[in-house]
Amino acid sequence: MARRWVVGNWKMVRAQPTVPEWLQSAAQQPTRAGVDVSVAVPAPYVFLAQQLLQGSSLAWGAQDVSWDEEGAHTGEVSATMLAESGCSIVLVGHSERRLRFGETDAQVTAKASRARAAGIRPIVCVGELAAERRAGKAESVVGAQIEALLVGLHGDLSGISIAYEPIWAIGTGVAAAPEEAAAMHGFIRHQLGGSATSTPLLYGGSVSAENAAQLMSLPDIDGVLVGGGSLRTESFFAICDAAARCVGV
Ligand code: 13P
């Protein structure tokens, strides 16, 4: 796949030095040919992102979405509401939500489906724990997450991206080794079968300006999902520059 995708995930952390300054500086960024850049901000900042990023080279989105369409679901945000706020992406099934809030594969699939129906690209996150990898179960764990998505969406992954985020690499400063990342991406691509060429596969977990180009030049890695490295514009846009160098590679 020729294009590259860079998605920032601020999690529940404020961008630096301040959120408005990050967004204002991002709005000045040039378009990078062949690179889709977006940022998933905490829900209260979606409206600000819409105001400050409209018409810029950056898209914006949220970090979660309800699987319900509408109704008495206190605390939830619907896909339609996100679409009305100009969101074009949403993270779904991040490991921090699967682990801390017990999100199941069925719920993750329902959220992805709801987002897609509202015209928002869900980025479905999958990944294994360190103990699962040590036990030789990395492929079976990730394979089961992908299989649940494929079954739940009747094999149609159009409009969906997948992010492989090994949980042991998140926030540690140590990304997966290139051969580990490439092997898992190849495994996922193979499992996707018919959808293989059109589904963007992103890697996440300690992506930095230093390792981004190497990761994105590996086979089957179409882009990156960036946590800590997205909080400052300098590092985030250095990663976007790396992505631009990998377009067509
Ligand atoms: P870090 O880039 O901080 O390791 O976070 C990765 C992540 O979880 C992005 O969704």
CATH domain topology: TIM Barrel
Silhouette? globular
Written as H for each helix and E for each strand, in order along the chain, the element string is EHEHEHEHHEHHEHEHEH
The largest pleated sheet is described as: 8 strands, parallel, barrel
Count of helix runs: 10
Beta-strand share of residues = 15-25%
**Cofactors, ions, other ligands:** 1,3-dihydroxyacetonephosphate
Please tell me how large the radius of gyration is.
17 Å
Span between termini: 9 Å
Derived structural class: alpha/beta
CATH homology superfamily: Aldolase class I
CATH architecture: Alpha-Beta Barrel
DSSP E strands, number: 8
Mean pLDDT: 96
Overall domain count: 1
Measured as a percent range, the helix fraction is: 25-40%
